[in-house]
């Protein structure tokens, strides 16, 4: 015997699990406002460094809060409140939008042009994991472009790259526009340039809800790789879009002999991000643990290069990358007696 179930009953049965899940979330604007404010108040790590009075911020945005505002209006209000932190690691994530803070790079020159970069990379460059690499024509200099530390790079990839560059006198590593990613890739690449262990920096953790409740700094050390290592002159190119894990990479590389950092100040992003959830199910991400350099100074606002260079319009009009050209000259000067 077949039992026919009306379609509307099937629809209700399918809908019930979703209703149970939805019922767990609280849509009240005030409750979500309070939850976000308290999460940041107790766990965010850069209030004092950035001079942010979170109580004043609360009063400013609480006045704009309404129990009748819709979810889009609430999202915009909470996003504006988070923007007061001036932190590129701070995001509010909903099913319909992700809030982000970009002012940390918007007022700086771009200092990178992908069309001009192709004049150096060509079309026959190698690809190893997330790295593109080539020997620059007419030079004895290798060039690496790494666009994201989120792109995997294995030890085998690096072995092959350094073997390819075995006859080169120097190396350019271009991390302009690299917005960060995995610290494991930072360590894997930077360790290829070490001859001995170094103190890369320190990390600090929150120990309580107070804005000054921090642990003592814990040292972060890096050891030389057991694989092929590079011991020749190296120039690392940076711009303001070099952020987060890329900032950490520069923090390590600038401590290594034979490495010169050239370009613009990095974008910073020296806080380890942490995530939490609001009553309505939206996710909030924010800086929770400061990373410090080897002298226990903050790197949140960025790292200055050893040699400051901006791309010039005159060079760009000729299809030249001012930073790459300066890096070539730097390596040639350092290797002219070899």
TrEMBL record:
Biological-process GO terms, alphabetical: proteolysis
SMART domains, per the entry: TSPc
Domain of life, per lineage: Bacteria
Ranges for domain Tail specific protease: 115-310
Pfam families: Peptidase_S41, Tricorn_C1
Molecular function, one GO term: serine-type peptidase activity
Gene3D superfamilies: 2-enoyl-CoA Hydratase, Chain A, domain 1, 3.30.750.44
InterPro entries: ClpP/crotonase-like_dom_sf, Tail-specific_protease, Tricorn_C1
Protein name: Peptidase S41
Species annotation: Tannerella sp. oral taxon BU063 isolate Cell 6/7/9
């Amino acid at each position: 015997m077949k039992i026919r179930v009306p379609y509307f009953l099937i629809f209700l049965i399918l809908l019930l699990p979703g209703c149970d899940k939805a019922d767990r979330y609280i849509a009240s604007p005030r409750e979500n406002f309070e939850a976000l404010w308290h999460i940041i108040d107790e766990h965010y790590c850069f209030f004092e460094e950035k001079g942010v009075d979170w109580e004043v911020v609360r009063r400013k945005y609480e006045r704009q809060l309404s129990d009748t505002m819709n979810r889009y209006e609430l999202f915009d209000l909470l996003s504006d409140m988070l923007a007061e932190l001036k932190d590129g690691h701070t995001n509010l994530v909903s099913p319909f939008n992700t809030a982000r803070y970009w002012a940390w790079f918007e007022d700086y020159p771009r200092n990178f042009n992908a069309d001009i970069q192709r004049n150096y990379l060509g079309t026959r460059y190698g690809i190893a994991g997330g790295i593109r690499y080539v020997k620059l024509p007419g030079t004895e200099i290798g060039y690496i472009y790494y666009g994201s530390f989120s792109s995997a790079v294995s030890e085998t990839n690096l072995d092959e790259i350094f073997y390819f560059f075995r006859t080169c006198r120097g190396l350019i590593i271009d991390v302009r526009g690299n917005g960060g990613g995995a610290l494991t890739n930072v360590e894997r690449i930077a360790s290829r340039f070490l001859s001995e262990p170094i103190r890369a920096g320190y990390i600090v953790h929150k120990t309580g809800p107070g804005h000054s409740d921090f642990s003592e700094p814990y040292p972060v050390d890096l050891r030389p790789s057991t694989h092929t290592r590079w011991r020749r002159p190296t120039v690392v190119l940076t711009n303001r879009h070099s952020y987060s894990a890329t900032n950490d990479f520069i923090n390590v590389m600038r401590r290594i002999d034979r490495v010169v950092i050239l370009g613009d100040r990095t974008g910073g992003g020296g806080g380890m991000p942490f995530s939490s959830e609001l009553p309505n199910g939206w996710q909030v991400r924010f800086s929770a643990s400061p990373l410090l350099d080897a002298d226990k100074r903050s790197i949140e606002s960025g790292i200055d290069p050893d040699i400051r260079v901006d791309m010039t319009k005159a060079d760009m009009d000729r299809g030249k990358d001012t930073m790459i050209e300066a890096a070539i000259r730097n390596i040639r000067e350092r290797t002219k007696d070899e």
